Amino acid sequence: MTRKTLRVTNRVCGRGAFLALAALPAILIAGSQLFADEPYARSRDYDLQHSKIALRFDLEQKKVLGEVTHSLSILRGGTAKIIFDSAGLTIQKVTVNKAATKFETNAEKLIIPLASEAKAGDKFEVTIRYEGKPTKGMYFILPDKNYPDRPSQIWTQGESEDTHYYLPTYDYPNDRLTTETILTVPASWITVSNGKLISVNDAGKGLKTWYWKESVPSSTYLITVVAGEFDEVKDTWHGIPVTYYAPKGRGDRLPINYGRTPAMMELFSKKTGVDYPWEKYAQVMVDDFVAGGMENSSATTNNSGSLIHPKLAPEYFTGEDDLISHELGHQWFGDLVTCKDWGDVWLNEGFATFMEAVWTEAHFGKDQADYERWSNAREWFASSNLWYKPIVRHDFDDSSEFDGNAYGKGGWVLYMLRQQLGEGAFYRALKHYLEANRGKNVVTADLAKAVEEATYTNVDQFFSQWVYGAGAPKFDLSYAFDAEKHQVALTVKQTQTAEGRVGLFRVPVEVEITTASGPKLYNVTVSKEKQTFPLPADSVPLMVLFDKGGQLLKSAEFHKEKKEWLYQLKNAADLADRADAVVALGKMKNDEEAVAALGEALRNDKAWGVRATAADTLGQLGSASASRVLVGALDSIDKPWVRSRVVSALGNFKDDAAIVAKLNSVAKHDDSYRARAAALQALGKLKTSTAFAALDAAVSSDSPDGMLRNAALYALGSLGDDKAVPILLQWSAPGKPIDSRRAAISNLARLQKDNQDITKQIAAYLAEPHFPVRMAAIYALGARGDATAIPALEALLKSDDLSIEMAPMIKGQIAHLKKPKDGKSSASSGSEDPEEEAAENSGSEKPTTEQRLEKLEHLLQEMSERLKSMEKRLPPSKQ
Fold it and tell me: Model's pTM, two decimal places?
């Protein structure tokens, strides 16, 4: 699943949102146990082998009318009853082997007594007729008085354990079955489900019946039903149907955003050595989806926010490819081979995250893959609440297992395993893992076993520290050159605190030493708290790189002189090393030489990621010379993904009339919509005297998908002028575009903070059926800091219709609002606010309310662009 509401990609920082959300503390709230995930795989009395599912729908009542026939085989002798998961469904009739039988129900189960105890191997057909108004698992997105033109849609989202809210079944991943899905819907609708489309027949009364059949077994959380008014685009890969669907009226957005899917299928089939394993591949983009994407077997569902307007799509370097490749990667890792329990969900999410990078490197180049990996490592280290948690863990009671460890760290671990095994051996191991476990449920030990069987390499120590252990190495680095010995003495200290599951790491490291005669590479193994490595050097080093190219998930403080950082920025071959130099030079305040070097990198570095990072860093320096460099570079930078970052950086320079004039010009006339949007937000941040008029005008302007209007609504919050309250109230109201409402709601939180009527208005949006609006309201209430919102949030938390993403986020906001002014948490769990905890760990100041709101603004914009950072439910991520 792509919880990824936040990902560090060229689209603002998509993956970042995911990690930020994943970092929210999980505080136990009374009544929240309804949302609990089972951390360990269940023991089973039967094997569910096949389900024939027939569904009709009452649109007016948002009701499902269903009949399902389950074919199953008894596993345990002496079984006296068959139990299915079922929540909120009215069971009308049950037959066992075609004979009517009695049954019992409770809040979560359908219990069917057998006439006599069954023996192992006995087979049963159980038919259940039922109806219900699902509170989750199945969602009805229909026109209403506020959105009368919205295309009708019904869609399901089963992960992790929500399928039983619309279908009585076995709802845990450690079983696999084939399916037939028979959907009777209005004749003008399209449906999508697992497997092949067998037939579409007239059902009378303006209805048609669609018959889908999936003959490759998968787990019940991967069952999908989508029905509604959609546009369709057809494609193929090696004769396999590849189809894309958009809500009616947006079909023109499919080719430009999704047209690279067959190329991804080709790459992943070649890399893994296992051809795409399903009968077809469909991608359906739906409105109000509760995650970024969901990898249902053979039929992914993605959020319609991934359908970027054709005029905007060229402004994003990698487009929606991170989301698309992530969900496609799951068709192998998660669907063909599925985690046995949620504690091992990284085998789904970590692999899907890794496959994103495989596509990025192949299609967009090594520099882009390196930039994303470098950025993801920094984000992971900033999520301090992940530090003491191993990737494989079972100490959770909600969707928190889908966190930044399952996604970002999991992807990093697989990258490091590839580096240590070598490309050929690594992919041999993946092929063996997939083939040996095809159609099975797995735990991490199965992956380790496959690696050892395919490569004859013992990876116990690697998995022990990176997967079963927690944290990552933190290094303090320095070196001295001995001219007589022609030697560099490299001193390496591991500074992470060894406690709990965090220990000292044993890692192979490449060290590059560059002298006047050129670079030389050395391999060392770090394993102790402090070590000194003597390495040859024929003269004084011009540059020493520890972990050349950033091959390890680590943080490092390397004590170097400025001249070496300057040399590294200009000459290091790998993006990660140049980006590290940018960060180091950015710490040198009032240093004109550093500013000049950053300006050179901004204009000329071959990797746009380094150029954009240099722009960010110059903006953070905030000096007059840095502003001149940024303004000067803007005239020569035309790539929107860099240009927008330069414009954003200019928002750090106050009281500079020339910058204000430049921003006004960009906001009105620039060729790039992204740059114009960034300029509007910079004007709001600078709080100029003319900003309100400029933003007010932009709210009324036209642009693709209202991009400029939404940017202006965000900027009005930064501006902090209470005159914006009526505008934000207007655009937060039902009937306005959902993205605009999200922007307006989040920024209402920043104004008139003592006005509890605004708090009440935001809280009222918690009751809306639109997932993005509810999410915006949740975050706005938390960031606003008004404790009177706690009852509304607690009431929402106790409701029975929360999606996979929502419960952990509500808990995080309640925890923040309960924190008293002295900074000590009043929550029973004692969990700290993640941002403040990170600040304490780094020794920096705790974030102010204004800074939290700034972060909220950034987060919600990412959600608007990626609703990704949501595969990952989140992040988890229930990546």
Answer: 0.92
